[in-house]
Design goal:
The structure is a single chain. This protein has about 575 residues and is an alpha+beta fold. The protein folds into 3 domains: about 190 residues, 2-Layer Sandwich (Heat Shock Protein 90); about 120 residues, Ribosomal Protein S5, domain 2; about 200 residues, MutL, C-terminal domain, regulatory subdomain (Ribosomal Protein S8, Chain: A, domain 1). The protein has 17 helices and 25 strands. Strand 8 and strand 9 form a beta hairpin. The relative contact order is 0.09. About 10% of the residues have low confidence. Bound molecules: adenosine-5'-diphosphate and magnesium ion.
């Protein structure tokens, strides 16, 4: 046996680096946080080759003096801890670990010029080996460049996803940080193309820029305070949900977090206003005294520990509920003078006999010769008269009302319920693929899918391991013709995300809802009259037919009297 020896520092650094530097997105996070800590007003980020080839972050912050450059890349060197009180930390970084960790697994260059300094200086670190400090041309601020990430840690390279996926992950990190720092301008360039340009401005503007028009239009503002706890931001209405939690932007004392407790509190507040497996949209900042929260529990500081978790949970649930409740009771402002009300879909349409077979994907038959319109039939949703905007079906009922159906929402609910029924009746029929599909997934996602292969087989989806990938042998028969790879990728995301946190039954329902989305008639698809009528009949007999799997209405009814009022006839 050999003597016990200390690891060479470069090796120790490389091991520690794994904790902080997991993928390009984590480098981006650390560098941008440093720029924010330095008081930057503009930050520009450049990504090349998924961030593996090059990541550059440039800021106009306070800069680093030439003589401090070697210290900045030294382990546990930080300018941010005045004393030992690790708990009371106002800045984002404080462990003094990011730069040395990055330098241990890449080629790092740090160029900086503090305001007032006559010139800039540069230091480099390659695979943990520090170079000398040299003068360098530079504007005021700091420019950090990371090249060839993991070139000396090939094992980590293998765990990276495609450049595209790594870029997406880095952009997600940037969006999160940008959301909580609207006072800072951001510019992001990916492979030479500018993908994000955010001017400094109001928090609302930033939220609208990053979360889109729909959220901006319907966002419900929230501001609550209780004792030393403050919560502010926006939540989406229950009708605006996402398939993942990616658009839940939560910050604790301005630090973006993906904290479980907060996400669960948010979900609880929405209750059954949104469907199982769907996630609300939110931009929320929680502020509380620094000593009431420990941020030093997670290497990337994504999770926090609250001193009084129960109080925080209760406060967040109550605040979100109140905001949602207030939004519900405020009457919508009528857009047009003759206001009328739509009849809400009846909870359950009168159950007719057996659900008809669903020829939803039948290819359109040869166009029939035009025939006079038949009299409206005695069905609750009437007879199809037209398809509008390639998205809505207009129908006329025997009792003289108009019905507008959202074809995608309706088809999705019908599939969802049909899949549920099939599952309850012993399993969903399989449709074997002529050529099995190979789907590349991240190791975590592949594992999440394969671990549930048996349950998925009952849903008609047959998968097996294939090298590091997943092989799809059969898809659920009701979804035959769907893009198997897209389906599996989507489910992998769902499963990897829901993890073990939910009961199996609940997870299966979420999976079914996802599947239903795949087989569905999309908005934008032209339908024949036969297809439209089949959709109406099926919707009438579908449980929960009044809302889609995301809780939005599938149809609305417009009475003749409403029309008369609109035209001033009444
Ligand atoms: P930490 O952020 O935890 O202190 P880092 O390794 O990320 O550790 O950075 C080390 C030190 O380098 C920081 O404390 C700071 O003094 C300095 N530094 C890093 N990036 C910047 C920057 N963009 N502008 C100014 N100073 C910086
Ligand atoms: Mg830092």
């Amino acid at each position: 046996m050999g003597a016990i020896r200390l690891l060479p520092p470069a090796v120790a650094d490389r091991i520690a680096a794994g904790e902080v530097v997991e993928r390009p997105a984590s480098v981006v996070k650390e560098l941008v946080e440093n720029a924010l800590d330095a008081g930057a007003r503009r930050i520009s980020v450049t990504l090349e080759g998924g961030g593996v080839e090059r990541i550059a972050v440039e800021d106009d912050g306070v800069g680093i003096a030439a003589e401090d450059l070697p210290l900045a890349v030294e382990r546990h060197a930080t300018s941010k801890l005045a004393d030992e009180r690790l708990i009371e930390i106002a800045t984002l970084g404080f462990r003094g670990e990011a730069l040395p960790s990055i330098g241990a697994v890449a080629r790092l260059s740090l160029i900086s010029r503090p305001r007032g300094a006559p010139e800039g200086a540069e230091i480099t670190v390659e695979a943990g080996v520090k170079g000398p400090v040299r003068p360098a041309a530079a504007g005021f601020g700091t420019r950090v460049t990371v090249r060839d990430l993991f070139f000396c840690a090939p094992a980590r390279l293998k765990f990276l996803k495609s450049p595209r996926a790594e870029t997406d992950a880095a952009l997600a990190v940037l969006r999160r940080l940008a959301l909580v720092h609207p006072e800072v301008a951001f510019r992001v360039t990916v492979d030479g193309r500018e993908v994000l340009a955010l001017a400094a401005g109001e928090p609302f503007r930033r939220m609208a820029d990053l979360l889109g028009e729909e959220m901006a239009r319907h966002a419900i503002a929230l501001a609550a305070e209780k004792g030393a706890l403050r919560l502010a931001g926006w939540v989406g209405p229950p009708s605006l949900t996402r398939a993942t939690q990616a658009d839940q932007h939560l910050a604790v004392n301005r630090r973006p977090v993906t904290d479980r407790l907060l996400r669960t509190a948010l979900r609880v507040a929405y209750g059954d206003a949104i469907a199982v497996g769907r996630h609300p949209v939110a931009v929320l900042a929680l502020d509380l005294p620094a000593e009431a929260v420990d941020v030093n529990v997670h290497p990337a500081k994504a999770e926090v520990r609250f001193r009084d978790a129960e109080a925080v949970r209760g406060f967040v649930i109550a605040a979100v509920r109140e905001a949602l409740g207030a939004a519900r009771t405020v009457a919508p402002v009528p857009l047009r003078p003759p206001a009328f009300r739509f009849a809400a879909p009846r909870a359950a349409a009168p159950a007719l006999a057996e659900a008809p077979a669903l020829p939803l994907t039948a290819p359109p038959a040869a166009r029939p010769a035009p025939v006079p319109l038949p009299a409206p039939v005695e069905h609750p949703l009437g007879a199809a008269r037209a398809q509008l905007l390639a998205t809505y079906i207009l129908a006329e009922t025997a009792d003289g009302a108009l019905i507008l159906v959202d074809q995608h929402a309706a088809a999705e609910r019908i599939r969802h319920e049909a899949l549920k029924q099939a599952l309850a009746a012993g399993g969903v029929a399989k449709q074997a693929l002529l050529v099995p599909a190979v789907v590349e997934l991240s190791p975590g996602e592949a594992e999440a899918v394969l671990a549930r292969a048996e349950a998925l087989a009952r849903l008609g989806l047959v998968v097996e391991p294939f090298g590091g990938a997943v092989l799809v042998r059969a898809v659920p028969a009701p979804l035959s013709g769907c893009d198997a790879a897209a389906l599996v990728r989507d489910l992998a995301e769902e499963l990897a995300e829901s993890g073990e946190s939910r009961a199996l039954a609940e997870r299966l329902d979420a999976v079914l809802a996802r599947m239903a989305c795949h087989g569905s008639i999309r908005a934008g698809r032209r339908l024949t009259e036969a297809e439209m009528n089949a959709l109406l009949r099926a919707l009438e007999t579908t449980p929960n037919g009044g809302t889609c799997s995301h809780g939005r209405p599938t149809w609305i009814r417009l009475e003749a009297a409403d029309l008369e009022r609109l035209f001033g006839r009444r």
